[in-house]
Amino acid sequence: MNAVTPSRANKTLLWLQAGSCGGCTMSVLEVGAKGFMRELQAFGIDLLWHPSLSEESGSEAIEIFEDVAEGRRPLDILCIEGSIMMGPDGTGLYSRMAGTGKTTLDWVRRLAPRANYCVAVGTCAAFGGIPAAQPFSEDVSGLQYGDGLEGGALGREFRSLSGMPVINISGCAPHPGWIMETLGAIAFDEFAYTDLDKLGRPRFYAKTLAHHGCDRNEYYEFKASAEKLSDLGCMMEHLGCKATQAVGDCNQRAWNGGGSCTHGGFSCIACTSPGFEAANGFLKTPKVAGIPVGLPLDMPKAWFVALAALSKSATPDRVRKNATSDRVTTDPQRGKAGPK
Amino acid sequence: MTRVIAGPFNRVEGDLEVALDIQDGVIARAEVTTTLYRGFEAILAGRPPSDALVIAPRICGICSVSQSIAAATALRNLAGGRAAPNGYLAANLAHAAENIADHLTHFYLFFMPDFARVEYAGRAWFEPTVERFKAVSGHASPEYLPARRRLLEIMGLIAGKWPHSLAFQPGGVTKAIDIGERVRLAGILADTQVFLEQTLFGVSLDDILSMQTEEDLDAFRAKASGDFGAFLDIADDLALRNLGRGPCLLLSYGAYHQAEASLFPAGIAGLGGVTSFDGSRISEDVAFSWFSDTAETPFEAETTPDAHKSGAYSWAKAPRIDGKPMETGAAARLTVAGHPLITALIARDGGTSVRTRVIARLVETAILVHAMQGWLRELRLKEAFSTHFALPDDARAAGLVEAARGALGHWVTLTNGKIERYQIIAPTTWNFSPRDRTGLAGPLEQALEGVETGALGAKSAALQHVIRSFDPCMVCTAH
Lengths: 340, 479
Prior knowledge:
The complex is a heterodimer of chains A (340) and B (479).
Chain A: E1 11-17, H1 23-28, H2 36-42, E2 45-49, H3 59-69, E3 75-81, E4 84-85, E5 96-97, E6 102-103, H4 104-111, E7 115-121, H5 123-127, E8 140-141, E9 167-169, H6 176-187, H7 203-206, H8 217-221, E10 287-288, E11 291-292, H9 301-313, H10 317-323
Parallel strand pairs in A: 1-2, 1-3, 3-7, 7-9
Antiparallel strand pairs in A: 4-8, 5-6, 10-11
Chain B: E1 2-6, E2 16-23, E3 26-34, H1 40-44, H2 52-55, H3 64-79, H4 85-111, H5 126-133, H6 141-151, H7 153-158, E4 168-169, E5 172-173, H8 179-201, H9 205-209, H10 214-223, H11 227-237, E6 250-257, E7 262-270, E8 273-275, E9 282-285, E10 318-321, E11 327-328, H12 330-336, H13 340-349, H14 354-378, E12 395-403, E13 406-415, E14 418-425, H15 427-431, H16 443-448, H17 461-469, H18 474-478
Parallel strand pairs in B: 6-11
Antiparallel strand pairs in B: 1-2, 2-3, 4-5, 6-7, 7-8, 9-10, 12-13, 13-14
Helix pairs in contact in B: 3-4, 4-6, 4-14, 6-8, 8-14, 12-13
Family (chain B): Belongs to the [NiFe]/[NiFeSe] hydrogenase large subunit family.
Subcellular location (chain B): Cell envelope
InterPro entries (chain B): Ni-dep_hyd_lsu (IPR001501), Ni-dep_hyd_lsu_Ni_BS (IPR018194), NiFe-Hase_large (IPR029014), NiFe/NiFeSe_hydrgnase_LSU (IPR050867)
């Protein structure tokens, strides 16, 4: 296969897993018509090593890490998947890089300054993620941010050799396209600081909300709410859905051929957001005086309350009935003379 | 005696280190180390039970549906509830899709590339194996990965996305499947069948399903052109039936449950036959684990990390049944289910081997596609896909299911409506267990003893084959 970036020299990629479930790798394996490895090849990215894919094991792999860490082998892209385990007591001993006698924290701090671009693959590497939930919030961090947005394992001021901060492909797990398109854009030499949002997330997927394109939108508009998981209605009022508060183009691209969380019948848990793991009761909407605490981003509260009341008073019968059913029981009515 | 450390041991899910004492080119003693601890059990404590459905699947990115189903089963058992019949079927469809993907990912990406190592240059099968299975560059993965992607479209239809879905609930699944979606699911299964028949097996699934004896397997090889046949040729040349003998006791919790029945039964298989399984006999030992001493039964145990504990060498605990380590996985599942071919291979070889573990996984993919086609037909599309029931405030229950890699259990105690205690024993916790207080080694540790590494030590391909034949999932192991 010919590289689509023939004029540029190939880029090198080293991928390491820290406090990871491996789900980000499982996700990205899906990309492209021929899978991840051929996709990397097409974009002119040479894989130095990946824990799930490479032949080199043990000392052969450590040799590659040492060559990069000592500056003997240039590294364009360092991908880190998984939380950085800082604990216990800052020792990093919850995660040792097997065979090296060193912690993953040590390796990340040695390797990251050698990379042109440092990429946090997934919310764990970006912000700490699920392992940063209580009682481990002090012991677990992302690369550049902790889950409270304090400095992470590399510090808030970290910049890779290109001058870029860590690129945070948050998501648990991220869409395969979010990962591959970030790597591809780096291969094109066109990823700039302005392509990231304030938290280092690529704007190509973080410039919209997970809510945008939700197929429950009509229920949202009319505040026709689901009362239990399996109902078709909007899950914001009762079932903890945070799609109006979380960034992502989740409902604008297909997951696994056509799905999404809300399409699959369950609430958005804001997995692209720092601190999402701190929720206690993910599937229940926190409310004060009957009004959800978490309102849609950028929406003034008074307006939301007023519009919600107005919408509820205007909810069509069809929408209200279907909202609490697991399937459409009332179809759209046909106009007398058809569409005009 | 030389001591060597093998790690990072890659092409497994997660982080693995193995310490080997080698005497005259033969492994005298092995210590298997899980190097990562994330604390999921402590994270789950103090939360409402439904949060387990968010958090538990995120233990593992490769078997997240299995973790979801274990959590949902535990919650259902807490309430003494029942899922909707369609809910069991839809969950089984997604679970089986994940397990087929896991088996094939293991075969194509993790296991087979070791036969393309330069150590084997000169073997008759070496050149074609390099072309087909070499890590990263081999021609098999660009054929397999699109088939995997197509198979995982089942997740888009049933689970919303994969990995990490909230579709799997105590009462069933969150989305009702409609008439068009059933057709789409059937189309995906048809494509998966084509991949298995044309690329993996080179014969029909019926031919695979009808194999009962070693002679049937030989007859299959005589006419098969697929990747499975290529593995069998290599396995014979390298005598993989004699490599990596397990501890002889095989555990299965039973898999793909419906309200009254399951596709695979629970039990324990030994060389003398299959006996019943009693969950109350399960214990966990932390003598060589980086955890403080605690109760042995999972309903009572705590998980308190102690990174500086003297003598400990793993973040995994050592699970036992009546004090004995157990091997778990597809070979165990099929033996407990009385599958004639796998039972015959184990009887002939005197236990599990590298060869039989791989054969069992691939045969199981055929069984699962066949079962999925049946479950799809059984769905009653006009009926509910979920029931709804309240959970009690104070109760304890377990959810015992099978992940691709074997027996997976969640033990949950609720107090005042919150999770008081949550304990998890994953398949590779069984297979890659450290020693217990009596000094009894775990299944991999036993399987490695006596393996010849020659002058290559930790780089020996035989070592790679034995370890990867278990298809370890290290992220689940210590969680």
